[in-house]
TrEMBL record:
Essential cofactor(s): Mg(2+)
Name this protein carries in UniProt: Geranylgeranyl diphosphate synthase
GO MF term set: metal ion binding; prenyltransferase activity
GO biological process: isoprenoid biosynthetic process
Pathway membership: Isoprenoid biosynthesis
Keyword Magnesium found: yes
Family matches, as InterPro entries: Isoprenoid_synthase_dom_sf, Polyprenyl_synt, Polyprenyl_synt_CS, Prenyl_diphosphate_synthase
Organism name: Miscanthus lutarioriparius
Amino acid sequence: MNKLASCFLRHGAPSAQSFKSYHVQRSPSLHSLQRRSVSMPRSRTADHAATAAKATIAPLVNTQGADVTVVSGTSFDFERYLSAKARAVHDALDLALQGLPCPEVLSESMRYSVLAGGKRLRPALAIAACELVGGPAAAVVPVACAVEMIHTASLIHDDMPYMDDDALRRGQPSNHVAFGEPTALLAGDALLALAFEHVARGSAGAGVPADRALRAVLELGSAAGVGGIAAGQAADMASEGAPSGSTARLVEAAAVSGAVVGGAGDGEVERVRRYAHFLGLLLQVVDDVLDVTATSEQLGKTAGKDAASGKTTYPRLMGLEGARAYMGELLAKAEAELDGFDAARAAPLRHLARFMAYRQH
């Protein structure tokens, strides 16, 4: 096992106390649970001899406490799980962005945004979906990294003056503020291209069959372009009648791609897709609600931007309480899609949905 692989085992128990072990049961009301948050890792020095394509992930169930703890088949330590995956994805991204054959300022700009932190929810979703279907550990690492590259590219472009014009992202100056608009534009473009190169190279290196890698590329490409982020941003700028759903599409693609490279059958893929569709909508509704209710300090970006720009959001369409009720409906629908899977393997996805619903930033 290489050093990057072993970091999944070493970092199983962070000191933060933002989550306790939950019990897998019927989802309670959104207002009946205390909302909590998980602190994400900052940049760390990785082993230069390792490669992102060969990174592996710890097994889902490890009763010795390495990554996931299952007690009597019902209790799941989500804090440890999410923190371990976030740290390992961060290290894999750090490795993937080292030694890029491009001007130093472009490389710095790309690393600045990708390694700035964030909750790493989309990569964790891809990993959990692969584990759900019993996929090999190494198979999902390139997909997890690619999902975060695509997501970060969209944030860089979204923040630019001719789009949402936001000077703050993840608690620090937006990429175009730190590096200038031309470099930021190129950094977003480069990350988008690198994401697909990384899936292709990494999947081959991890022994993922070519047909599975191709299906993952198709899912991610659709989510990044006319079937997702690009189309959604255009709709947002036009303030067309309903929320665009671009956030939901990338979430769906992350989960489906993880399941596909993990070897899921067609029926399993479709159940994962439905779960992730509801989860992606939930994430968008929560983002819209937090834009109204949270502060800029809590969000790490400028609060109230959606309302100020007249963007069509769920609170605007449904009212704040209506949007919160819809969050509860989406959470219940997402969890229902997991009922046919093994309970222990489904636990990360079940609690990931709850985390997305109850988060405060």
